[in-house]
Amino acid sequence: FSDITPLCKLSPSHKNVQRMPLDQSRLEPQVDFLRNLFSSTLGLGSAEKVLDELTLEGVARYIKSGKCKNIICMVGAGISTSAGIPDFRSPGTGLYANLQKYNLPYPEAIFQIDYFKQHPEPFFALAKELYPGQFKPTICHYFIKMLKEKGLLRRCYSQNIDTLERVAGLEGDDLIEAHGTFYTSHCVSFCCRKEYNLDWMKEKIFSDDIPKCDKCQSLVKPDIVFFGENLPVRFFTAMKMDFPRCDLLIVMGTSLQVQPFAGLVGRVSKSCPRLLINMEKAGQADPLLGMLGFGGGMDFDSDKAYRDVAHISTCDDGCLALADLLGWKAELEELVKQEHAKIDSQDKKEKSVESKGAAAKSDTASASAEPKAEE
User: Fold this and answer.
1) Is 88 labelled as part of a ligand binding site?
2) Are 34 and 4 in contact (CB under 8 A)?
3) Residues 281, 146: one domain?
4) What's the pTM value of the predicted model, to 2 decimals?
5) Which of 63, 185, 290, 329 could be a cystine partner for 196, CB 3.0 to 4.6 Å?
6) CATH value at residue 160
């Protein structure tokens, strides 16, 4: 409660109260924050219906009403599949279904910290295939960027490690990368923990070298969260401030099966609408717990449903549909076109530089290999 301004102050004797003039514009957000905080953490507060109907159209009208000012997006691997990055669990096409070539004891081992320390080769082979910089952000990524530009985005909580949110234009303060990121890397030794940047790690991976610390020769691991590691501290500190203030939660491209990320859907107030854009319904409340009044899972279909909307489609199609209802579709499509053109142009420049560098090395090698003329 450190950011809540006192409404009065006590005199030194604590007997006389000196009343301070109330600034209503400052008071209302603080009261809303307290109401949402108690509602989400203690289960208090009324279940006010905010949407006029539980459809994408109802969500769009709510956003356009001006009452929606703090949108939180929760996103998973499904927002990046149209960029060519596989998700984890789709049968046949998901990442876990195509790891046989790495001879793992079980698919999840590739992200198990103890296994990684003993056998880092499979992870870095996979990292070369999926490395950031080889893919373009999707329509969904740029829709989130538009929410930011329009002053509506409170924060984006991402399970993804592909850094495409950053490529699309979100900055560090806009993002909570719940499962870490390739953006930085650290030595795994507790006594060292030297930091390395994205370019350093990229050079190692694409040279097929196992990254070792320059200082102590221990393994260097990208700052993604493996099974057996703690989530970033910032995840826990930010969620305590963000979710009580949220007035619309948009969940996209995640199965909501991994905790503690999945539990975030229950941290908004009871009145906060929640929109799921996904290929199937996810995050639904356990029926038994729901009957007992516990749990914050989604309720799309029961007679008591009043705030949760499921839009079943790809994330890109869902974002385009919502943008269309908001009158933003043309703007979104133009943004995607311009940003992809910039990325293509940058890629051409980098490849040209690499090509010239390779040619120069080849010429130097050829020249040194030529026999010298006899004197």
Assistant:
1) yes
2) yes
3) yes
4) 0.76
5) 185
6) 3.40.50.1220
Alpha helical stretches, state H, 271-328? 287-292, 315-326
Instruction: Provide the 3-class DSSP secondary structure of residue 54.
Output: coil
26 is in an annotated binding site: no
Break the chain down into helix, strand, coil percent, rounded to 5. Answer: 45, 15, 40
Active site residues: 179
User: What pLDDT was estimated at residue 264?
Assistant: 94
Has 162 been labeled as part of a binding site? Answer: yes
Could you tell me the CA-to-CA distances from 249 to 73, 75, 333 in Å, in that order?
6, 11, 23
Supply the mean pLDDT for the chain: 81
Nearest to 253 by CA among 53, 70, 83, 46: 83
Interatomic CA distance for residues 246 and 230, integer angstroms? 25
- For 51-78, write each residue's pLDDT tens digit: 999 999 999 999 999 999 999 999 998 9
Residue type at 368 in one-letter notation:
S
DSSP symbol at 57: H
And the tokens for 6? 């006192």
